[in-house]
């Protein structure tokens, strides 16, 4: 199999990976289940769940001088270091909120309220946390919101469509790393380079919530001013959203305790258990990376692990589209349409949107569940889907989103069930 088509993990490693997650093959009641809705969350690492419970059970306040407090301080410091490992961030400020959406609103507000300009730019495919924040603060600061259209063929947004909206009066560009509907990756490196060539010093924010669990992020190559991700979509636990801000963005006026440094964004007492979860995520990815090289640097091991996750997921994507073993793929099943079917799988995360000739998306999701499969209906009436689907002129789609801990036999089972539904 060519590298562009991906490569499955070796069977022994696949079994070890599967064993590190909760509920991959069965739900909490022990019923056999395929969970293919990881774009709405993700399988949880057992170590992340266990570590969170152990650390969060401690009553100690980290802001003290006794031994257990220093222990919690060390956990937070390691977690902050591991956030930087994930992003390859060597400076700037770390900010944690209850959700990644909350962090996005805060970053957008700080820039929009304090950076001069008459317009701001985003895309039609943004998550509501970004799009609605841009809309709200454009109104409050009397800036024009410019929105780049989607490309119905690729499921993404063309670089030219974004850059053409930027001019000398643009205060902020906000884009996502990958679509959580189509899986299409945005070419962030080209977008950042061309946008800053058109307006040097342009402030840029990136929503990486969807992409972070699937590929490498490198702020040295894509020097943006803000980026966020969500641990619960990255094999971790719910309860926190994580953001990074560039040094200049961190210094903009924002909610802050007056005695803290001007670049500090954290408010109140930290939650060390949430930082411990990030460390477990990085420990896990570096463990995978260690199977494929002899690097000792934590960032290098992490990158190697994410590359291997990406390759396995690309192989899963190819198997879903073109079949595996004796099972036909989605492209070959009659009565099934594959949306945004871009042939270059390197430009897509592990998300597929499909439609049935004989079933609405909602009815299809119900039929899948009856057969032990969890997928998600994206419909035009949803606040999380409507704007994006309308841009593609679609009333709805069934979103399929496995994770790298799924194996080829999971794909075969899913495809067999899909063929059954197509013949109803």
Descriptive report:
The structure is a single chain. This protein folds into two domains: 3-46 and 298-422, Alpha-Beta Complex (Aspartate Aminotransferase, domain 1), CATH 3.90.1150; 50-282, Type I PLP-dependent aspartate aminotransferase-like (Major domain) (Aspartate Aminotransferase, domain 2, 3-Layer(aba) Sandwich), CATH 3.40.640. The protein has helices at 11-19, 46-56, 67-87, 100-114, 128-140, 159-163, 188-198, 247-250, 272-289, 298-322, 361-370, 386-391, 408-422, and strands spanning 34-35, 93-97, 119-123, 144-148, 170-176, 203-207, 226-229, 241-245, 336-339, 352-356, 373-374, 376-379, 396-400. Strand 3 (119-123), helix 5 and strand 4 form a beta-alpha-beta unit. It starts with 10 loop residues before the first helix and ends with a helix. The chain has 13 helices and 13 strands.
Compact description:
The protein is an alpha/beta fold. Helices cover 38% and strands 14% of the residues. The strands form 3 sheets. It has a 7-stranded mixed β-sheet, sandwiched between helices. Strands 9-10-13-12 form a 4-stranded antiparallel β-sheet, covered by helices on one side.
């Amino acid at each position: 199999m060519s590298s562009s088509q991906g490569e499955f993990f070796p069977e022994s490693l696949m079994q070890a990976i599967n064993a590190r997650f909760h509920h991959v093959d069965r739900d909490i009641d022990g019923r056999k289940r395929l969970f293919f809705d990881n774009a709405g969350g993700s399988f949880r690492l057992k170590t992340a769940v266990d570590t969170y419970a152990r650390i969060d059970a401690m009553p100690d306040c980290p802001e003290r001088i006794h031994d257990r407090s220093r222990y919690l301080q060390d956990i937070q410091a390691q977690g902050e270091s591991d956030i930087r490992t994930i992003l390859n961030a060597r400076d700037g400020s770390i900010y944690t909120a209850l959700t990644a959406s909350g962090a996005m609103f805060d970053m957008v507000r700080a820039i929009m309220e304090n950076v001069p300009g008459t317009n701001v730019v985003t895309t039609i495919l943004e998550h509501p946390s970004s799009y609605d924040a841009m809309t709200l603060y454009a109104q409050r600061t009397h800036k024009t919101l410019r929105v780049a259209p989607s490309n119905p063929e690729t499921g993404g947004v063309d670089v030219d469509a974004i850059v053409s909206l930027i001019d000398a009066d643009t205060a902020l560009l906000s884009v996502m790393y990958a679509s959580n509907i189509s899986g299409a990756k945005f070419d962030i490196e080209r977008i950042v380079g061309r946008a800053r060539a058109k307006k040097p010093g342009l402030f840029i924010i990136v929503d990486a919530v969807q992409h972070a669990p699937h590929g490498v992020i490198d702020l040295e190559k894509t020097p943006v001013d803000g980026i966020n991700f969500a641990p619960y979509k990255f094999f971790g636990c719910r309860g926190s959203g994580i953001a990074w801000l560039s040094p200049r963005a961190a210094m903009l006026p924002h909610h802050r305790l007056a005695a803290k440094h001007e670049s500090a964004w954290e408010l109140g007492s930290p939650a060390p258990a949430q930082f411990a979860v990030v460390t477990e995520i990085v420990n896990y990815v570096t463990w995978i990376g260690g199977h494929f090289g002899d690097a000792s640097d934590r960032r290098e091991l992490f990158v190697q692990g994410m590359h291997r996750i990406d390759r396995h997921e690309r192989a899963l994507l190819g198997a879903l589209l073109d079949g595996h073993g004796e099972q036909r793929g989605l492209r070959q099943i009659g009565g099934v349409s594959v949306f945004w079917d871009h042939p270059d799988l390197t430009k897509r995360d592990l998300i597929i949107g499909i439609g049935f000739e004989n079933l609405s998306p909602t009815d299809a999701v119900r039929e899948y569940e009856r057969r032990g499969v969890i997928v998600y209906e994206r419909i035009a009436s949803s606040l999380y889907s409507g704007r994006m689907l309308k841009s593609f002129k679609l009333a709805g789609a069934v979103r399929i989103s496995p994770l790298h801990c799924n194996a080829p036999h999971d794909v075969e089972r899913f495809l067999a069930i899909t063929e059954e539904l197509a013949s109803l």
